[in-house]
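Everyone, study these two lines:
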Amino acid sequence: MIEILPTLESPTQLRDMPLEKLQRVAQEIRQTLCDLLKERPAHFASNLGVVELCLALHTEFDFLKDRLIWDTGHQIYPQKLITGRYHRFHTIRTKGGLMGYPNPNESDYDLFVTGHAGSSVSTMVGLRSGDDLQGKTDNHSVAVIGDGAFPSGIVFEALNNAALLKSKMLVVLNDNEMSICPRVGGLARYLDRLRANPFYSGLKQEIVGVLNKLPVFGDPTERLLVQIKEGVKAGLHGGMLFEEFGFKYFGPIDGHDIALLKKYLRLVKSQEGPVLLHVITKKGHGFKPAAADPVLFHTPPVFQWVEGERVELKKGSAVAYTDIASKAIGDQMRRNPRVTVITAAMCQGNKLEPVREEFPDRFFDVGICESHAVAFAGGQAKTGMRPIVDIYSTFLQRSFDQIFQEVCLQGLPVVFMMDRAGMTAEDGPTHHGTYDLAYMRIFPNMIVMAPGDGFDLRGMLDFALQQNVATAIRYPKTTAVEINADRQPIELGKSEIMSWGRDGMLLAVGTELTHCMQAAAKLKDRGLDIGVINVRFVKPLDTVVMRQVLEQSPLVVTAEEGTLSGGFGSALLEFAAEQGLRADHVRRLGVPDRFVEHQSRAEVLHELRLDADGIAATVLELATQRGLLESGFQTA
């Protein structure tokens, strides 16, 4: 029974609640999260893990005056539920509903849209600096960052800068031994040692205080005692790494004990200068299936309750492009011992678990460190290996400089598999992969491809691993299709003519191929003979076919799941300008110069006119303008 959450309009109502009532709120939050998962997929285990932490933070701070950044923002659901958004919570991740990440347009408690990991400490330091400069020194800046995000290079850049300010800042290290998959690397091992350290902050300070009172007797005895004292201090000093950065370290403490959390938050609020509070939580806490398998329950399929806490997942059987990519990578690794695969904490999302199990020596999960992943791949390629960097399109943006400096400038044959390219639907603007075509095609020594179907995707990976320069292959988060037609092999810079139309041509980039073919069939019923080309290569362009299209077609429509600024349509217009070809009969379809909000994939494609109806309507409009059809038609 949900009784308290519907009455909450502000977190201030939590502050005078007794502990038992706060614990009841925690139960109601978990119940609400479970109820949501009966309706649609959403981030789940991570939100279950921060319920008590969220409640403790909002009872000890006033985040209309103080500052709070959640990193990453997919663990924002409990905050939404206690900040007056309970009654709209059922709309989360739907068109016009709440965003699945923090959103300043929804609430003053959400400061930034934090969809990527690692930036919170930098943002917190900036907030602190800005407030200090304006004389606002009585508030606190707080960043909650997970242990999976903590190894991101930008975090250590921020820690280094924070020490210079010597202002009130709190980093809450939410240590749950996970990112989306189990965390990896040296920092993970360091945190594991801190977990095992029985000396909490208060005890450590007392022992160090006693050591400081020990007498010294002069050289060489003095040097010996100093070494002993410093050695004992170091042994007790679990947070030495953080304190070397100028942060006072407290913890680790139980992140599911509201009373203990409140006690320590009051303690750290009284400290001067930067503080790091190490909190131990468990993803999926409070719901046994999620706690037992937090990887599966990161964003699980819709489930039904069966016999209490046992759940029955409604798994789909359709094959996605990610499945095809993973299988193709495994096939290549079996054939060629020089092929490796590198991912950035997205083993599950990229469905690389079978590859990891079969090829543990050639599988590399570097954690949430995309810049390092690309530079690391450059190093491997320099030795003669053939690395595949398998990263979501939106996250690969973080390694823009390494793509330039460590790969393309060096002329190295790194393969970039850009998963989740195009519209990622319910995840919204932080996750849409709309910029990859624009930011990849500007580099020399780079080939950029977009498969029209599963056949193309498999062939493009095989092709890419035979090239002597970098290659990029982008594919969306959706069910894969297989075009039933005689297919042409993948050749450098060659498009695939599916049909030639007397009245115009559709130039399909990637999986827009299916929509374009469907649109052409619809237009045939209107008496228009429209052909379709599977572009395949955004760079290099098929200049022979593109010239024919521009010179011979009465109308041309390009369709791409990417930004119109700098995408394939722009490349076509650039080519026309360079060659002195007319282009007034070209219409481009794609993502306009704005951020596209979260909604279903079908809804977003319809909004952008990238579905079959939208493409057909665009052709009809252009045909009417050019006198190929009489006006008065009805658009789809």
Observations:
- DSSP finds 24 helices and 19 strands in the chain.
- Confidence is low (pLDDT under 50) at residues 198-203, 229-236, 631-636.
- Residues 569 and 588 are 6 Å apart (CA to CA).
- The two ends are 45 Å apart (CA to CA).
